[in-house]
Amino acid sequence: MPYVLGVDVGTTRTAAAVCRLGGAGRAEPEPVGLGGPGGGVASALHLTSDGVFAVGEPGDPRWTATGFSRRVGDTVPIVLGPETAGAQRCAAEELTALMVMWVADQVAAREGERPAHIVLAHSPGWGSHAKGLMHRALRSVGVEASLVPEPVAAAENHAFSRSFAGSLGVFSLGSHAFSASVVGRGFELVNSVEGVDQAAGVDFDDAVFSHVRASLGRALAELDADDPRTRGLFGRLRRDCEAAKRALSGTVETSISVHLPSGPVDVPITRAKFEELIRPSVDQAVAAFARVATGVEMTVLVGGSARIPLIAASAPGRVVLEAAPETSVVRGAALAARRLVLGPDREPEPIETSIMLRDDDPSLRFPVGGLDAADAEFTAPPPRPPVDITPLDLPERRSVKRVVRGLALTGGQRRARDSEDGR
Ligand SMILES: Nc1ncnc2c1ncn2[C@@H]1O[C@H](COP(=O)(O)OP(=O)(O)OP(=O)(O)O)[C@@H](O)[C@H]1O
Ligand SMILES: [Mg+2]
């Protein structure tokens, strides 16, 4: 059946959703499994020694590009490999376009046909320069797509299940990015600010990490930083801190196992402690949002970090939180693509469905804990992306060429997809 495709290339995670064009009834957007974290795929492109980009599995950081979607419009290229003639300099929009191309190919292979249209959600701060670069890069890899700001996509998704007559506030908190926006009834972006210095998901991971460090004191501080086992320990600890943070969205206490050379030690952390650590950052985000989103009818919380109960409890006014806020933007991108193809008149009025609501009337407050039912699959995102990769010990020089084709599933992804499909 003909379909449209929405794509969200986040700093850590790329997600896709399709929306059917034929058939009876309303077309619910369907997130597409891409074999990686949270049903998407890590926003990572690893340039292999064959000169092709492998998608989704961060490899050697010197040859792996991450975090590129937030750098579109930045004139500094992303350098892969050593700072010599062998280095590859890639523009952020080219890498983002490759990611979109790969997603479109994956989905087309499953659906048996190309999408009738593609919408790529983008950061609300993009001006005409960034959008122009993105359009050009997409065309150069054979992808025709429309661009829609993320808060507008979030509003499209919201409007699918709940009508709004005035304007909608969109509070977005992902792994690295915070934005506060207002979207009008006609899906126009009325106002938006991005918090450059605003803490987001990775900073909350750091807060858990600092709690572990403070709890263990010298036992951790005295480890030999040059020992590869110490690096392994810290890498695992960072992933476990992120997992503990996610667990605290659904439970009031958890613990982090630290595998010290002398034996494993469990460091407990309560939700109350975590909230104490992140409260100043949350208050700052809420204050930034309150300055932008005055007089909005409702506020929708989107992005993976919106799952943190303190965020929903702190946001002002009437607050709507979806069960899987990290998919709100991509679902909305698919709905926006459908609207672009079919026109607005084809959509019936929304039927209000499974959304949780908080109002500043205390009698209407809902318990914001226990939201993790759909989170079981949401595994750790890749580590914080390096911006400029300056290798200390240079890897072997590879003979690489710029590749805009031949993106291949890596082994792990192929296995994950095969087991997902029951093959
Ligand atoms: N249950 C949870 N509780 C707290 N945080 C969570 C939970 N689930 C996911 N996250 C966090 O959400 C973040 C990922 O969110 P999302 O997928 O919206 O980010 P992104 O789109 O890749 O990044 P960005 O929007 O910042 O560019 C990660 O920091 C992750 O740890
Ligand atoms: Mg995002």
TrEMBL record:
Gene3D superfamilies: 3.30.420.40, Actin, Chain A, domain 4. Transmembrane segments: none annotated. InterPro entries: ATPase_NBD, Hsp_70_fam. It holds the Pfam family HSP70. Keywords: ATP-binding, Chaperone, Nucleotide-binding. The keyword Nucleotide-binding applies. It comes from the Bacteria. GO terms for molecular function: ATP binding; ATP-dependent protein folding chaperone. Residues 374-394 are annotated as: Disordered. This is Molecular chaperone DnaK (HSP70). It comes from Saccharothrix ecbatanensis. The lineage of its organism: Bacteria, Bacillati, Actinomycetota, Actinomycetes, Pseudonocardiales.
